[in-house]
């Protein structure tokens, strides 16, 4: 007589004994002293809401700009504020000032990690 597989599935699989599987260290269990800058190269979208409202207005008015002056002005103000913030952030990064917090870019983080290297 054959036992159906559903009876085994209800009980689940028994966990493997940890003593039967010894730990093998393949890579060293420590962090590197540097981080790559790949994550910082992502695209940041500025003024997406204002741009959407502007395009909706342009579509409704058959792309005649004189009917969407208010939306154009809001978008330009938003973009100007965004560029000012980006310029200030870039200026502080280029000065090399490392401020404590969780918003460090990869250059600041590498500079901070050089002060406290991981022992080999």
TrEMBL record:
GO MF terms held by the record: RNA binding
Origin superkingdom: Eukaryota
Biological process according to GO: mitochondrial translation
SUPFAM superfamilies linked: Cysteine alpha-hairpin motif
GO cellular component: mitochondrial ribosome; nucleoplasm
Species assigned in the record: Drosophila madeirensis
PANTHER family assigned: CHCHD1 (PTHR31278), SMALL RIBOSOMAL SUBUNIT PROTEIN MS37 (PTHR31278:SF2)
Name of this protein: Coiled-coil-helix-coiled-coil-helix domain-containing protein 1
Coiled coil: none
InterPro entries reported in the protein's UniProt record: Cys_alpha_HP_mot_SF, Ribosomal_mS37_met
């Amino acid at each position: 007589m054959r036992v159906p597989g559903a009876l085994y599935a209800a009980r689940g699989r028994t966990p493997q004994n940890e003593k039967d599987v010894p730990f093998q260290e393949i890579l060293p269990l420590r962090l590197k002293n540097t981080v790559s800058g790949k994550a910082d190269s992502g695209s940041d979208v500025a003024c997406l809401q204002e741009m959407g409202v502007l395009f909706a207005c342009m579509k409704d008015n058959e792309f005649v700009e004189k009917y969407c002056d208010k939306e154009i002005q809001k978008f330009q103000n938003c973009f100007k504020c965004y560029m000012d913030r980006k310029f200030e952030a870039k200026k502080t990064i280029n000065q090399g000032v490392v401020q404590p917090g969780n918003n460090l870019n990869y250059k600041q983080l590498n500079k901070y990690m050089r002060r406290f290297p991981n022992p080999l």
